[in-house]
Amino acid sequence: MVQMKKSPIQLFLLTSSGSRKTLTTLLTALLLLSQPAMGANTATKPNENAALDTADQAFKSLHYEEADSLYNTMLQCGKETADLYWKLARLNIGIAESFEPNETAKRMPYYAKAVEYAQKSVQLDGNSASAHTWLAAALALKADKIGSKEKVRRAAEIKKELDRALELNPHDDVAWSMLGSYNYQVSKIGWFSRMVGNTFIGGMPEGNRLEAEKDFKKAISLNPRVIRHYHELGLIYLEESRKQEALNILRIAETKPVLMKSDVRRLKEIRQLIAKLTKELSVKPKTYDELPMGN
């Protein structure tokens, strides 16, 4: 019986003790390198699409390290596209947001990379709604960790990117959710800061909680599976002492799937808020007849 010689890939599968990430990255690189040279046939790119799909699936499965390796393998193979860069921006935001809110030093490098990737995406395709959405998100999240002065300085740029994203794609739930965060944050700027901003910066952003509430509700209507949309809306209700509405929306949020690593942290906070609100709302205020009377 003739012994068939095994291919290099088969030998790798049999002998390698490498991780699943290493194998997937190798296969992705082989897919990309097997494509024809530039100009040979650019009508269809099945291998490139397959590689991107594999990386996207790793991201959706919350395998962020693997997704990062796969996306960067594509970059190293010269497959630079607007889609690839905004997905890298999204990934780095996802990694940053997976850290606790007080771990700013760990978050900031990923926010900085997200801004760079998203800017590159916009440069490659100014008509990509997702490129503008994730640039706005990266700028907003980075500014939020730097301080109020940076928020004010970046506000116009963030709003411009969100407006462009929604002009290109009015059904982008992420853009609507980020617009809600924008309007909510702007609503918290006090009159003194606004006066100083108008004097020294030349203008202050406009926004209010009513608009923020509408934005989050719009995001929910477009994609009812995203925990963030409900959570952020619930926080607005809480700040306005609309406790029953907050409890109702947070209970819905608790039933939604984990789509990002940060959702695990959000769910923990949501469950704590639900327990607190349930306890508070279950305590009925005493009537006049039940109040203790003095002697």
Per-chain topology:
Blueprint: H1 8-15, H2 20-33, H3 46-60, H4 64-76, H5 82-97, H6 104-124, H7 129-146, H8 148-168, H9 173-187, H10 191-200, H11 209-222, H12 227-239, H13 243-254, H14 262-282
3D structure, described in words:
This protein has a domain of 49 residues. The chain is globular. It is 72% helix and 0% strand. It contains 14 helices and no strands. By secondary structure, the protein is mainly α.
Beta-strand residue percentage: under 5%
Number of helical elements? 14
> How many beta-strand elements?
0
- Oligomeric state as shown: single chain
How would a crystallographer describe the biggest sheet?
A: none
- The whole-angstrom Rg is 24 Å
> Which ranges are low-confidence, i.e. pLDDT below 50, for 5 or more consecutive residues?
1-18, 29-44, 191-202
Topology as a string of helices (H) and strands (E):
HHHHHHHHHHHHHH
Structure summarized in a few sentences:
The protein has 14 helices and no strands.
List keywords for this structure.
single chain, 295 residues, mainly alpha, 72% helix, globular
